Amino acid sequence: MDQKGYHRGSFQSGTSDEDMLEIAGASLDFSVADDDPPLDREMGAHFSSYNGGGMNGTSTMLDFLEEPLPGVGTYEDFNTIDWVREKSRDRDRHREITSRSKESTWALLHSVSDAFSGWLLMLLIGLLAGRNATLLCVLGGESKIGGADCDLQVFESAHYIILIFFFPFEPGSLAGLIDISAHWMTDLKEGVCLAGFWFNHEHCCWKSNTTFTDRDKCPEWKSWSQLILGHGEGAFAYVLNYFMYVIWALMFSLLAVLLVKGFAPYACGSGIPEIKTILSGFIIRGYLGKWTLVIKTITLVLAVSSGLSLGKEGPLVHVACCCGNILCHLFTKYRKNEAKRREVSYYFPLKTLWRSFFAALVAAFTLRSINPFGNSRLVLFYVEFHMPWHLLELVPFILLGIFGGLWGAFFIRSNIAWCRRRKTTRLGKYPVLEVLVVTAITAILAFPNEYTRMSTSELISELFNDCGILDSSKLCEYVNDFNSTKGDDLPDRAAGPGVYTAMWQLALALIMKVFITIFTFGMKVPSGLFIPSMAVGAIAGRLLGVAVEQLAFYHHDWAIFSGWCSPGADCITPGLYAMVGAAACLGGVTRMTVSLVVIMFELTGGLEYIVPLMAAAMTSKWVADAIGREGIYDAHIRLNGYPFLEAKEEFSHKTRAMDVMRPRKSDPALTVITQDTMKVEDVESIVSSTTYSGYPVVVSPTSQRLVGFVLRRDLIISIENARKKQDGIVSTSIICFTDYCPPLPPGSPSVLKLRSILDLSPFTVTDETPMEIVVDIFRKLGLRQCLVTHNGKLLGIITKKDVLKHIAQMANQDPESILFN
């Protein structure tokens, strides 16, 4: 209940980027942003300060039982919402609208518009953000849909679009714009199109008359050496292209980090840990505001184009959440109810499935219209393998799963250690320098190797590719025997010089990406992890696939090959191994299983390869879990101390509620408010001298019989409003939380009735309740706090923060690492 983020001198929100905190290794702002105000804007104007003494004023009598006060029922920044209260308020609102709909035509139209607003919101989200938010359903946890908060109803679409149209897409106008822009700016590092500078390399050469083998050397596209020197051959031309590549990379990354630092510190990182925390009921105002949306969209393009080992899929979740949050403010029922905007975090209503299907339809239509991939397909890495896999290939697939698990565990430990060092040393004070150094190292190492020079998405696409007759890639330079070729199917062939060259280049690329990604993820630029993880696995898979292919070609008489891989047959598909390896490494880092398989076959369109993907995903998870139980996003949540209760972890310790509740035996007595004996000045004194977020209300100090629970914010707002607008309310006025207040002597000041802000049904447990049950209650009901009683008498209180600290203590972790209320 400690509310260290609340300052008694002010209720107003701060400006957006003044106070900084560490999030994912970068300095971030946790103050309230101007572009994402509290639910009721009137609060900032009516109640600017509180000093415990109140304000004298006279006005007309205000009945607190009938007229809700602006700001009552809302939450301070860095507080957890009360799910039970929010859902109760929404049910009351719905009942009132339904009952009034029978009274007049206008009320009926209002009821219809209220019911239709959810569908309209899904339409807007599908058009604007489409797929981006879908990613979080998987990242939020697979045992429950979500497991975090997102100030927004977007997850009524987001969480479920994954069920239908998940990761393969970049639907939505913003996602399409990001894809197209990133592709163009990535190619800009190597040259420019004379036919139009806005064309990337591929689009520039579409209408070229060059031959198929020279399609990348069309006259319309000029490298920087050709543009400056007039020719592209020779050592000096190579050095000039090298120099321009590094300079463009540094420019892009510098602009990205300066925009993030100067305008929207929340725009850095992946955003997935924070979104999960927000979805669980925690409030971080400004994290989903319009400035964050604008800056993250721009800097995401810059960061990806700079060539850093990062992806855009994770940050696109944050972008989609921002879109949903902004759009939610257009509809009253979502704007004024925090739980409604997080509707799918703890349960899965059927109506949201239909709405998500509708949002997915709109998003897919938008994607098809934009065609960001330039291939008229709705998947990012479309594959079309000609041969099925064989049962014996499960052995190398499982080996890839083991590699993915080992890589995932290694990456998580190394990245968390580096991020912790960034947070605890002077390194964190120089985010711009860190970004520039990592970018310079990445660009210098990447340019000489064509597989690290190209964008990571292009690399994965090439690794997934099944070699055909017309393929000119080094990966497809086999020794061809055209007499044995049947149609488009090519038999297994001996590897040529190009393949061997590609193998050692890929090996170097693998080493580079394994290590450079550790230092890149978590810097103060938007940085996703999906694509880099897939790239590591795809490279390893392709290397193994080519090795198995050559083994089968030269030793087809071995027992393991003789039954199904005869000479001249197309037995092994290295592209399939790359796809399985990508799934294994992604699963090792994120610990996804079922949803990972959905992602991969949606990404590639390869529905018949579900079994290899399942085998690799399960193996990688088992191996990684044997080393460490946390996925990368859960590890960052714990590193940053976010108040997030993981739904998948079991609590098996034999402790009781009385062991966790406050006050402890050595602590002062619990601060309570009586139902009808305290004066305004007494309550103001309690509020001024404590930092708790709320107070139990009891019958009397001696009986300690529980009446209800009242929030600190509601108390302050109601008292100040009464002093301004209600006649006769002074410091000696009695505060009454009951329907009927006790009679007072003549001449006594007016009674302040505050029953309307009292929660008459706070959740309670007995002191002997096992903590295993208490933890389960907090997880499933999303409680903010529960009260502990003994024979009906109040003993203490347990907050979500107390539960998190107790879990950390039982796991031999530092309980003080839980930073926020």
TrEMBL record:
Record-linked InterPro entries: CBS_dom, CBS_dom_sf, Cl-channel_core, ClC
GO molecular function terms attached to this record: voltage-gated chloride channel activity
Residue span, CBS domain: 661-725, 757-816
Leader peptide range in chain numbering: none
Topology in the lipid bilayer: Multi-pass membrane protein
A single Gene Ontology CC term: plasma membrane
Gene3D superfamilies, sorted: 3.90.1280.20, Clc chloride channel (1.10.3080.10)
A Pfam family recorded for this sequence: Voltage_CLC
Protein name: Chloride channel protein
Organism from which the protein derives: Lamprotornis superbus
